[in-house]
Structures are given as structure tokens and as C-alpha cells.
Amino acid sequence: MKTSLESDAFVFFGATGDLAYKKIFPALYAMVHRGALNIPIIGMARAGWTLEKLRDRAHDSVQAAGDYEPECFAKLSALLNYVDGDYADPATYVLLKKALGFAVRPIHYLAIPPSLFGSVVQGLAKSGCADNARVIVEKPFGRDLDTAQALDDTLHAVFPEQ
Length: 162
Known about the structure:
The structure is a single chain. By secondary structure, the chain is α/β, with parallel strands linked by helices. The chain is built from 6 helices and 5 strands; from the N terminus they run E-H-E-H-H-E-H-E-H-E-H. Strand 4, helix 5 (117-127) and strand 5 (134-137) form a beta-alpha-beta unit. It is globular, with a radius of gyration of 16 Å. The two termini are 22 Å apart.
């Protein structure tokens, strides 16, 4: 049973990167396998890819991780969507807003370098994609205390702590 606090879409920035290949796709697959994930999954990147190329990458990733079942991967694949664009371009977030469809409480996972957090968070805010949303950031979180505090301030400008 869904509660009003559960996310209804999962957006991950950096969908074409190594972290996605090595960790994120296998984790999403495992969640689908356990029946714990049945919401749209939107991969975001600026790689010039298509949805089919992202699905192929996810397929290769899951197979390389082991414990592959074609029926389970088909379920994961059906949940996948892809938005390609420059994280500094407002048009990218217009495409994301469209891809989110009826989702009202997305979760955004930033599997990107911390130097991109600011432009992504601002893009999410300006497009309305941050409304009622949550954000997860991948470490490292800055290079030192000052940069970590600056990143924290950037995130809190759009996403309240609670």
C-alpha cells in the first residue's frame, strides 16, 4: 500500500556513467526482482543516447552482475525512460517534466560530479521538477568542509532538510 510520502518516479542523473553500470542498474534490477520497485525510472544524461541504447547498457550491466532472469529484466526495461540533454540547459528540464508525466513526488538521484549539483538543482527548481520531490546525492560531497557546506547550501535552497 502506497503512502502519500512514497516516491512515484525515480530520476537518476548520470545514467550513462560507470556508477550506473556497476551499481545503479544492478540495484534497480534487484529491487524489481524483489517486487519493491514499480515506478517509472528516468535516466538522465548528456551523452547523445537513446532509450534503446540505455536499455542495452542496463541489460549488459545486469548480466555482468549475475543472477539474470529475462522476465525480470523485461519488467525493469519497461519501467525505463531516458532524457538526454545538457544539465545547464532549461530545455532539458522541460523534457524531464514531460517524462515525469503524472508523477507528483519524484526522487532525484544525482550520480554526477558535485560540480554539477548546482546547475541540476536549479534546473529542477525552475522547471517545477523539484516540487514535492526528494534528492539523493552521491559522494564525495565536496573536497573539504568549505565546499561541502557550499553544496549543502545549494541543495537546501531548493530541497528542505525534512
